[in-house]
Design goal:
Blueprint (H helix, E strand, L loop, with lengths): L21 H12 L4 E4 L6 H12 L4 E6 L11 H17 L8 H12 L7 H14 L4 E6 L8 H15 L9 E6 L7 E3 L6 E3 L17 H15 L5 H12 L3 H15 L8 H4 L2 H13 L3 H12 L1 H11 L12 H8 L3 E4 L2 E4 L2 H16 L3 H9 L4 E2 L2 E2 L1 H16 L4 H20 L3 E6 L7 E8 L2 E9 L3 H18 L3 E7 L8 E7 L2 E7 L1
Parallel strand pairs: 1-4, 2-3, 3-4, 13-14, 14-16
Antiparallel strand pairs: 5-6, 7-8, 9-10, 11-12, 12-13, 15-16
Amino acid sequence: MARYFNTEGPCYPDEHYMVNLDPRIRQIQKLVDNRKYFSINRGRQYGKTTTLDRLSEQLRKSYSVFYISFEGLSEESYRSESAFCKIFSGLLFDAIAYGETDGIADSARDALENIRQSDTTAVNFPAISNLISNICKTADKPVVLLIDEVDQAGNQEIFLSFLGMLRNKYLKMRQRPTFHSVILAGVYDIRNLKLKIRSDKEHQKNSPWNIAAEFDVSMSFQSLEIQEMLTEYEQDRHTGMNTALIADLLYAYTSGYPYLVSRICKLIDEKIAGTPNFPNPSSAWTKEGFLEAVKILFYTKNPLFGSLINKLIDYPELKEIVQAILFKGYRISYNPENTVIDIASMFGFVKNEQGTLVIANRIFETCFYNYFLFEKEVGNQLFTEGNIDKNQFIKNGFLDMDLVLKKFMTHWNDLYSSADEKFIEENGRKFFLLYLKPIINGTGNYYIESRTRDNGRTDVIVDYRGVQYIIEIKIWRGNEYNKRGEAQLADYLDAYHVQKGYLLSFNFNKHKIPGAKEIICGDRVILEVVV
């Protein structure tokens, strides 16, 4: 069977096109070799299970590996110490019985089976602790425990006690045999869960998993790694694609988020190639085909986007901080000790960029914009005007951005000319996007250039039928500031190889003169619209 891009579960090199994970596996194995206990916490569909599968396969050359998962365990599994111990013992027994774990003594295997089948309530953590010591003492090789999908167990009291047992054994590993290394994998960082440790009324952050070593292995894909994957695809398919160009685009839009990289490639390969606009793979694996795939990504349901939005609903503070970054242009210092920032980082929403909190990638950023704008669409007059106006902006299949800006200026001045400065600062860019959205909907897409976003200016990049339009949205801060903005925009036009750009200025000066004019900056043209 020919290899393909996979987004529906773990990836395997002989079946799927995937980034070479060997360098990461070697880094992780160093932690195991050094007898570290640690957690692998990343956002949804970040390639955790694929990485764990490859890691367990590699570790089995030197270790007896119990690779188990808590996925699907019922609440009954946590109802008592005895229930949890029996389930845990059963998972270890199954790993041996199915040949996944080798080197375990028959006596230890039999002991696990006895506990699994026992009806007694006498099974407890001290008994499991002794059994673990026996397993590790009699095994042919050092024993490693790897648990995937620990999220469900994370808020259970019994799991806290289980971690406490592992911690106690870790601290006494020189006196009593125990697991050589323990790895917990999931979205939530076990150390950051609020766990009940004293009384019904007293809660605090604490965890017996404070023995965990820092896990700083990058699991995002770099551009060169993506290019290597595309080169393998190209050797099989011979599309003639520029692998470096497509790899750079994938990284620029996804920041190497594994699911997004694979999903966009899958869309180009299976949904774009063979369509009227992209009749063959050669035409699909281009910048135009890539942008078409990104558009489809946003207009089809996928579990990752659903998870992102659900987290915004579940964590109101997280929603506030994302909106502050996107619409108010706040530059928030990255502080992992802040609970909300820590949660946002844990879910993969944000990242630390030179000490500043930024949205993790362009795709997430646009997903959040679409969600927040949708909340405002109904009843918003500018969104309504955009819907009414949209047909007049398309000429010969291309977007007339000059006319879009000029019509927005007219509507803004009619609707919000008397708005105060604070209202405009917080809503100006939001309302422009609300006006733009129905115009490009279904054909084009947009994203925000994070390198220019602050509380004074934002660059919006619009992709429409393979053509890019660069629009700088800024607050008027005087003529000198405006001149600098024009020069900076001209530089960005050079970087994007675009001849013409757009400057949308929100001016609070009572004596301002709204209007549109073209400015020549070197060999570039800028249409400046003042509202």
